[in-house]
């Protein structure tokens, strides 16, 4: 029942605070015999790492991941894998202001109300830094998926930054790695650069929308009712810091469609697998994957730390004002992209193992 | 790890198929000493019951709930409560068509692909009928909340039906029980009546948006990272049939706001509790309740069963056409309102018990 | 985290009280496509049913099991199976004495101290009647095992009744079904008949030892550390009413052996599988099955309800005396035999599914 | 469902191998505000540490524990606590023999059969070294218990070593820390010294029996059926390496008693709490604590590594002989004493939090 864990069989427990000695992920249920090493995991961590462009926090963290257990001679053994990342850039600074004042939009006040104690240095456990652990675990999940479902691909990208959305007719997945925003629309990326540059100078911040797509997911993953694939994806994405909404396929827009408009008709493909006229469902029917692309979107709120003074109260209940200085992201959504991918990888691997355990390999064949 | 269960301490497992002898909920972790009886639970079930207006399915089910265990002399004993609802209107009819053909938008094809067997009578386990069990469990959760958190109120209502949304300036919660749509805007309710009347005649269907608000939630419920209150709410709502998106507070729109616009500033209230200038957060910061209203929205897709013929395939892979006759809801969102309320009640009670277990009563005081 | 559930993938939640309308088991994680029906399950329930000889309680219960969900056209569908047994022989009698007085050795006092409320009719949830639900679930597990591991056999029997143990040189498994004690030693069975006859007349009771053996268990089931096969077997058996100790293989006697005496040497069998010189380990090494017989023993304390007056207190704390009349078992161990078998079946199936999920079919080959 | 975790609310996941860089415990559900530091935890680790007498392995490990998260300014914050112990004495040696041959009585063969890969250096995950993590977690549990249940005491000791048992009439708890065997009987300790000295020289080993007693446990901990306090204790103890049997109170001997002999009669104590004439029950009735001493015993098999040659096979299935050299414990039971205490502490804290969450503070009062 651990509240810092996710997954059923492939089970990830993250630990550690933003300014403690280290943070990491304890990962149980990793299938044995998966080839993995620190270099591979580092690849994914480097994508999330801060300080890579002027649009993300200037905190300098090497985010070097170490594998402390569960891997022997380059292969997983089936026992728990401990992934540790040491915190190296914990600037010694004066925390007395945020120790006493609650920063609006942050978890300062609720942690205090809940626990009566909080690690006030940089958000403690509620810091976005916690997501480094998830990316490390996601790297492990990707390695396992690569051997179990060859061809499965997971790609995340931003589709909206404040008022500026991408134009889907211009989408080109080749662009995603070519700009600091994981943006598949080169023109939108340029607009975002201008827009975020301005925001950053004014000390403001902005929200964003991220889309994560998994291609090559086998049909049959998920389970009825509460073990739905979309249920677990919704939980996975909503658990990421600052996320305020999650959609599958048509998402919130489904409220506005008729049954005729929303229908994904079914045909038989040349390869003997069903094909669909459209993918309003986002690759999931009744909680179970159809074999189409699994499509998830989530919205990230604007970073709460801004340079504009805000009204708040102190621990002793006195009214005061706060300006949150520090090394913050003007658009925390950017670094949420690799995190969303990692969560997708973890959920898919978990459901693959669940399916294999509960049902085995004998599925219903069509035709 | 049951895939048909939800909740950590207050743990609900639903069972049963649409056309089997009965369905129900096995509820463990119910606090002892809660006054509850079948009449109370029936009140909530009657709100979800089909056939109450021409806008919902005409299937006639008494939906009579029985308490088979865990209640003694009108009080819960702390042992599992079994809630059973017998299916009474299982029309004997010819299922041979849907036994062979996969209905688009339904779980027919994915259940088949996953399990290689499915109860094809009326959707089996994937039928919206399963939500009756949730409403029964939700009634139990409400009874427990009533004794543990006096004053806590949970209200659900529809805010959008296809192209027609409510006007929030006209919202009047007194209207919610006065129309068949749980609509807080009397004028919108009239528009919906016309619109849905037309859809029903043409054999079409439409999606909807539901909002559920909990007032009087104590600050401090929820937990960091994966045990976030919003994580569990997202999972709870996404697990309801036909739901395609879930939002907390500002939700997907947060992607479009700046940090300045999104900030909920903090003040000290006259009662010695913090008050906020706004509630963009939807009552949750860092996964933990602030004491403000907890606000969740979810989108329900249009009913997939429509009278218009649709292309599909058979179990043997042959192309065919299907028209889904039957007693279906033109807008399944209507009956999702009491289900959303039930899920909110279950999640809040669960987190109340979790908090009490993990932290106890000693919270951080402000002031 | 349900406290009335056991199993990881094959997950059984039992519910119901001794004198309520019904009791049963909600079983999730049942593999799809398993042939099962009520007649098959009834077979196992009839073995545990009371009133079959003068050595067990004279309560007359049909113990008729009904399958309410999860089985369609004679096969499991992979969705939750609800197994319900109605209570039919709830004699109306005067419970005022046991409502006020705590019966020594029963859970009356601890339920009261824990919950502040208890169903005092016949033990409520703590009644041995709860084990009927386990036997029903065990029947389902056996059906699944029969299709997944042909040849696997589970047999339980009594080895000790008070001072009278079996003589292992006289063991003959063919005897087990030939006497009312599941005794593999015909001579011991005769001694027990005499001994228990005397005890019954004097209103006394006695403890017993039960051994359950699973033959044909594949090597590789279980997991290191806390998911050990023996850990789960110990929990399963200890959770049965009145059990006070559990042993695997050599058990408590291992404390008295030297390493030389305890070693199970390994050889290569003619069939290409390892064979062992002995089975001190009880078929489990490091928490994982070896392929040898899995051997578990557990001790059941004497029935606490005896005719001899005993000192106790009332709910209001006054000293008093109690004689527990009623229809009790002079040796509750007899009916624990089918329960132990059922728990073994559930644990083995669960670990089979766990193994299949986590590791898959590719195991390490020897040779 | 993590198979390397135990506990419901206070949830411990251990990780790490005997010869990897480090091992440890990720502990979630730690109540906030508990004063704890590394020095306190080290106290418990030092009791389990190898190399403290000639009767335990001569491996030299500092077993220095580090707290990497979840503690801030000397107090727990309610977030996960990471406890890490670096392995320092991993002698570089030739493992080629045990890499190829399966050591009888060890998990070598079953890990191989299960996973098809194993860390063959010193037992990997199945090494008794894993229990260092448990002792660290147990230290944390003790710290929390000290603040939540002042006066609760947990004491473990050995009662049997091979043929030599303690004489309970000579028991003196003051002796436990005065000899290298945690023996409460000074005379038995001398016998053990002689006996183990001889065994060690001859390269043999021996089993042992450990008893752990918790005094001052409040009445009401535990839950019916599968969440029984004794169920969790049985699982906890059986999960320790080399344990083959677990007993509560009268234990296996209960099989030999009559109801008259086994009855613990109830009286009212001067302090308004129930007292009992005896404690055959071991402090637990119906799975729930009575307020009496909770008494658990477990048997540890003899160390499998002995100097006498044993028959075995290689990975390729060839017959061979093995002599397990190395730095092993002649009686691994000695170091199991602090481990048993740690497991008791973890289980009691967990059930205390469970009770507080599910039931709250309002229990049934007697009188």
Automatic annotation (TrEMBL), chains A, B, C, D:
Keywords assigned: Lyase
Superkingdom to which the source organism belongs: Bacteria
Enzyme class: lyase
Enzyme Commission code: 4.2.3.5
Name of protein: Chorismate synthase
Origin organism lineage: Bacteria, Pseudomonadati, Pseudomonadota, Alphaproteobacteria, Rhodobacterales
Gene for this chain: aroC
